[in-house]
Amino acid sequence: AVRGVKITVGPPFFNKVNIPIGLFLLFLTGVGPLIAWRKASRANLRRAFLVPILVSLATLPLFLLGGIRDPYALMTFVLSVFVTVTIVMEFYKGVLARRKMVGEPWLVALLHLVRRNKRRYGGYIVHFGVVLVFVGLAGAAFNVSKDASLQKGETIEIRDYTLTYQGLTETEEPHYSAVIADVELSKGGRKVATLHPEKRFYHRRPNEPTSEVAIHSTLRDDVYLVLAGWNEGKAIFKVYLNPLVQWLWIGGYILALGTVIAMFPDSRRVEATLRRS
After folding, report:
1. Are 217 and 187 within 8 A, CB to CB?
2. Among 77, 230, 42, 76, CA closest to 150
3. Strand 205-212 relative to strand 198-202: parallel, antiparallel, unpaired?
4. Burial per residue of 84-116, b for 16 or more beta-carbon CB atoms within 10 angstroms, e otherwise
5. Is the dihedral of CA 124, 125, 128, 129 positive or negative?
6. Which of 26, 54, 61, 214 could make an SS bond with 225 (beta carbons 3.0 to 4.6 A apart)?
7. What pLDDT is recorded for position 268?
8. Do residues 240 and 145 make contact, with C-beta atoms less than 8 angstroms apart?
9. Under a CB-based contact definition with an 8 Å cutoff, are residues 124 and 87 in contact?
10. The pTM is what?
11. What is the pLDDT of residues 201-256, one digit of tens each?
C-alpha cells in the first residue's frame, strides 16, 4: 500500500506460515493432559512425558521405512502418536484408579469414569478427534493427479491403482442428458470398483455442462475420476488420488462426540445439586 504495488500471496505462503502453527497447536494438545491435572514439578513432568516421547520417537523409523519423507507430514504423524499416547495414558490411569477403588470390570469402569467426569474425558475425546483431523490433513502431502486420453481398453496407473476405460454410454433424463464413462478400477490385479463419471447437459443450460465426479473411498485413500471430455473415439480423464481423506471425516465425528459429552454436567455435580435441593 505504501509503494502502490499490489502484492498477492498464494498457498505456498499460507502453508509456510500456518503449518508450523498447526503443528505447535497439535503438540500443545498432547502437552495439556500431562500438566493440567497435576503439579508441574520436574519429576512429575519427566514421568509424564517419558512414555509418550519414547513411543512417538520409536515410530519415527517406521514412518521413514513406510516411505514418508515430507518433513511436515512426518512431524504430524509423530506428534499424532505422541498426543494419542498421552490420551490413552490418561484414560488408563483413570480406569485403573477406579478399578482399585471400586473393583469394576475395565469397560464398566471406563463408562463410569466418563459419566462422572464428562468435561475432562469429553475433552480428551475432542483431542483425539483433532489428532485424526491432523492425520487427514497430512495426507494432502501425498496427493497425486494425472491426465489421460484413453481409447476403449486402455489403462492408466496411479500409485497402486489401475483404471481401465471400457466405453461411453449416453442417457436421457427428464431434466438433462448425460454422457457416462465406464471405468474399471483395480488394485493389485483385483477389481475393486467400477467408476461412472458423467458429463451432464441440462436442458435449460445446454452450453454449460457439469461434471459428476466418480469417487472410490477407503480408509487409506480416495480416488476421484473426472470425465473431462471425449474426441475421436478417445475419452479424456482427470484422475486424483488423495490419501487419508476419510480420517478427516472420522476425526470430525469424534470431535463432535467429545464436544457433546463435555457439554453435559458431570454426574457428581448433578448428584451434589440434588442432595443440596
Report:
1. no
2. 230
3. antiparallel
4. bbbbebbbeebbeebbeeeeeeeeebbeebbeb
5. negative
6. 214
7. 60
8. yes
9. yes
10. 0.85
11. 999 998 999 999 999 999 999 999 999 999 988 999 999 999 999 999 999 999 99
